């Protein structure tokens, strides 16, 4: 249970304050200290939701207590009280970090109002701290999730390319087979760019029906088609000042391709059903597992859009072309899965690693990750070669 600390050398006043707060602040324990030094010792040992302190007290004055406390606990909330104070004293307390100042004889209604407001502020402060902690943890998990693992020559070349490309605003086309890590490259480019403070909006062009892709990318206005019950912002608008990652762009219809080409050329979009033009400032990163030059020859992809997208092209190799990275990838996935499941990390024996390196990975890094999770669930600790032959069907 949270506590409120009253520091007051006059027992009659501390008794009255204690009785009032016990009645008005249900759910809080009321603790009383008889002088500033006793109060400070309590504050050193534990946290209080609120500290109500007199100013003139033996052993340690309230204004000294306020300053010393805020040095070690800057989030502490003080309401100062005094019967020997003037305006200068009140102003100094507030400048030194007190939440409020109340003169004696104490106005009970003023005390109750100030106490409630201070406790509300403490609650908001607590919730904010929780959100900040959660955001840091989330950012840490996201960074870990999208970290590129390996020290093979093909991966080093990609990382070198990313470092050169990221600071610019050049459009990037990422190619390579499914599961090879194209998404990781896109995130790495965004994270190292000047746009990293802005959003990174992802669109899986293959997962959106062709009749809805225009609405998804550019938004729509209410009533523009059946089911459009309210205005909706598109992905391009949501990505303003950041990056839009268009995955599987080779699966986009020719009609949608024409709309995207216009957005890239003019830096403007028009929501479905609207004549309004919206300026957008986005960096476009696209990815595909298809050979777009072949798609162009077959009439399924616009050549002008291809040249707009492929200012820089990065090809992500299949896992079979960088098998030397498998030990590091297994180590990374084992730790990641342990963190996700809240378990101790399982170790993989050298023989198990070698067995995994002998396979052909048609599903690339994504397939390896799934296999590692399967072996962690079903295998021994450490995971041995026999587990690999037993639980991995190749």
From TrEMBL:
<dbReference type="GO" id="GO:0005524">
    <property type="term" value="F:ATP binding"/>
</dbReference>
<dbReference type="Pfam" id="PF00158">
    <property type="entry name" value="Sigma54_activat"/>
</dbReference>
<feature type="domain" description="Response regulatory">
    <location>
        <begin position="3"/>
        <end position="119"/>
    </location>
</feature>
<dbReference type="InterPro" id="IPR027417">
    <property type="entry name" value="P-loop_NTPase"/>
</dbReference>
<keyword id="KW-0067">ATP-binding</keyword>
<dbReference type="GO" id="GO:0006355">
    <property type="term" value="P:regulation of DNA-templated transcription"/>
</dbReference>
<dbReference type="InterPro" id="IPR001789">
    <property type="entry name" value="Sig_transdc_resp-reg_receiver"/>
</dbReference>
<dbReference type="InterPro" id="IPR011006">
    <property type="entry name" value="CheY-like_superfamily"/>
</dbReference>
<dbReference type="InterPro" id="IPR002078">
    <property type="entry name" value="Sigma_54_int"/>
</dbReference>
<dbReference type="GO" id="GO:0000160">
    <property type="term" value="P:phosphorelay signal transduction system"/>
</dbReference>
<feature type="domain" description="Sigma-54 factor interaction">
    <location>
        <begin position="148"/>
        <end position="377"/>
    </location>
</feature>
<feature type="modified residue" description="4-aspartylphosphate">
    <location>
        <position position="54"/>
    </location>
</feature>
<keyword id="KW-0597">Phosphoprotein</keyword>
<protein>
    <submittedName>
        <fullName>Response regulator</fullName>
    </submittedName>
</protein>
<dbReference type="Pfam" id="PF25601">
    <property type="entry name" value="AAA_lid_14"/>
</dbReference>
<dbReference type="InterPro" id="IPR058031">
    <property type="entry name" value="AAA_lid_NorR"/>
</dbReference>
<dbReference type="InterPro" id="IPR003593">
    <property type="entry name" value="AAA+_ATPase"/>
</dbReference>
<keyword id="KW-0547">Nucleotide-binding</keyword>
<dbReference type="Pfam" id="PF00072">
    <property type="entry name" value="Response_reg"/>
</dbReference>
């Amino acid at each position: 249970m949270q506590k409120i600390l009253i520091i007051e050398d006059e027992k009659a006043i501390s008794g009255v304050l204690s009785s009032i707060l016990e009645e008005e602040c249900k759910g809080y324990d009321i603790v009383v200290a008889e002088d500033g030094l006793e109060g400070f010792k309590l504050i050193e040992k534990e946290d209080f939701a609120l500290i109500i302190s007199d100013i003139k007290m033996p052993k340690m004055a309230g204004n000294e207590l306020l300053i010393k406390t805020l040095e070690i606990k800057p989030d502490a909330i003080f309401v100062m009280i005094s019967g020997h104070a003037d305006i200068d004293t009140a102003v100094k307390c507030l400048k030194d970090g007190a939440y409020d100042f109340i003169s004696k004889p104490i106005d009970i209604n003023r005390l109750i109002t100030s106490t409630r407001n201070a406790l509300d502020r403490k609650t908001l402060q607590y919730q904010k701290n929780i959100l900040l902690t959660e955001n840091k943890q989330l950012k840490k998990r996201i960074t870990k999730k999208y970290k590129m693992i390996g020290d093979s020559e093909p991966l080093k070349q990609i990382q070198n390319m990313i470092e050169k490309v990221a600071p610019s605003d050049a459009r990037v086309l990422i190619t390579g087979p499914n599961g090879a890590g194209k998404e990781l490259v896109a995130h790495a480019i965004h994270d190292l760019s000047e746009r990293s403070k802005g959003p990174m909006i992802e669109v899986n062009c293959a997962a959106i029906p062709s009749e809805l892709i225009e609405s998804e990318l550019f938004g729509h206005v209410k009533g523009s088609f059946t089911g459009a019950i309210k205005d909706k912002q598109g992905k391009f608008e949501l990505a303003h000042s950041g990056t839009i990652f268009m995955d599987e762009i080779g699966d986009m219809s020719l009609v949608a391709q024409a709309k995207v080409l216009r957005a890239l050329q003019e830096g403007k979009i028009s929501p479905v059903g609207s004549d309004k033009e919206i300026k957008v400032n986005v960096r476009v990163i696209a990815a595909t597992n298809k050979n777009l030059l072949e798609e162009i020859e077959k009439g399924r992809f616009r050549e002008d859009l291809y040249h707009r997208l492929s200012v820089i092209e990065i090809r992500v190799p299949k896992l079979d072309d960088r098998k030397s990275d498998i030990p590091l990838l297994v180590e990374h996935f084992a730790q990641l899965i342990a963190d996700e499941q809240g378990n101790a990390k399982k170790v993989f024996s050298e023989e198990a690693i070698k067995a995994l390196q002998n396979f052909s990975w048609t599903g690339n890094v994504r397939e390896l990750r799934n296999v590692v999770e399967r072996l962690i669930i079903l295998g021994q600790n450490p995971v041995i070669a026999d587990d690999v032959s037993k639980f991995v069907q190749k």
